[in-house]
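Handoff note, outgoing to incoming analyst
You'll be picking up this chain. Sequence as last confirmed:
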Amino acid sequence: MIKKIQIWHAVLILYFIVLLLRFNELVSTIELIFVIFQLLISHLDNIANIFSTNVVDQLSSFAIFLGGIIFVISFRKKIDWLRKKCSLTLFTSNILMFIFLFAPILAPYSDNLQFNLPTAKRLAPLSGRYLVKIIDERSTESSKSQYQKVEETLFRENVTPDYYLLETPISNQSSIGSVSTSVIFLLGTDEYGRDILSRIIYATRYSLLIGVIAIFITGFIGITLGFISGYFGKYVDILLNRIAEMFLAVPFIFLVILCVAFLGDSLLTVIIVLGVAGWMSLFKIVRSEVLKLKTRDHIVTSQMIGMTLSNQLVKEFLPLLLPSVLTNLIFQFAYIIIAESSLSFLGITGNYSHSSLGGMIQQGFLNLNEAWWIILFPTLIITLIFYTVYNYANKLRNIGTNQISFTTN
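Most recent structure output, in case you need it:
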C-alpha cells in the first residue's frame, strides 16, 4: 500500500493534516479577509495601517495554501511528476516545503511570544496548560472593532499582552478573565516560556529562505565566471583561476565569519556573504565543462552563425551543464544551511527578528541538563534538511552521469 502512494497523494495527506489541526486558524484568516475587504471599501485611507507585515504574511500563505490544493487536484493527472511514487526523501521535502510556505498557518504562536515564566518556563514536550485572556475593565471587548478582534485572534502575541498561562482553569471567570480551550505544547517550551514548535517552524523557514536566495547568488557568480574563464581562456582564465584558488585557500566557514565580522551581521549581509563565499567549486566545474564543450560541432556552428555570447550560454552550454551544476548547487545549499546555523550558534548573526536553528541549539546547549528537548528538535530538523538534500544530490548526480554517458555515445 505504501509503495503505491504517489506524490499528489502525499501532498493531499499533508493538506488534510493541516486542515484538521489548524482549522480554526484558517477560519480566522477567512474572517480577516472579509473584514479587510469591508475596511477597504469604507476606509481606503487606512490601507497602510491595515496591511502590516504579519497580515501580508498570513494572507499570502493562505492564498498559496488554497492555490496549492486547487493546483494539485486539477493537474494531478496532467503532470507526470505528481504521479511519481513518493519516496521518503520526497515526503520529507514536501514537509519542508509546507513549513517554508505555510509557516504563519502552521505555527501555533509567534516565535518570539513569551508566556509568563513561572508557569511556562521549560515545559516538557506534550505539556498542557490553560490559556487565559485577562479583560481590562477600562477597555471592554465591545469597544474594539471587528478588525481588532480578528487581528488579536491571529496575532495576539503582537497586539495585546493580556494572555497568560495557568496550570489549572479559573473557577470564577467573570472576575479575572475568560479561559480559552486548553493548549498543549507539543515540543515543550524554552527557558523564556516560548513555544519550541513555533520557533522551529519559523527558524526552518528562515534557514530555507536564506539558503534559496544565497544559492541563486552562488549559481549566478559561479556559472558566469566559470563560463567566461573556460570560453575565453588565456589571461582571463589564469586570472579567474588564481582568484578562485585564493578563496579556496580559506575554509568556507572561516571566510564567512571574516566577511560578516567586517560587513555586519544583518540578515541581508549574511545572505550575500553566504552566496558569494561558495562560488569557487561551481566555478571549477563549469570551467572544466566549458573547456570540453566549446570544441563540439554545434558550439562551433553557433559561433560561426554569429550567436551572441549570452545566447550561447543559455541555449548551447546550460542544457549540457545543468546536471553537474544542479548537483553542485544542491550540495552547496546544504553547506549554506550548516554555515548559517553555525553563525547563529556562535551569536554572529544577532540581528534576526525571528528565531534561528543555530541559536536554538546554542540556547539548548546552555540548558542541556534542565531541558534536553530545547536542543534535540532543532538538531533533528538540521539533520532532516541535510538528509533530504544529500539524497536529492545523489539522485541528480546519477541522472547526470547517465545523460553524459548517453550524450558521449
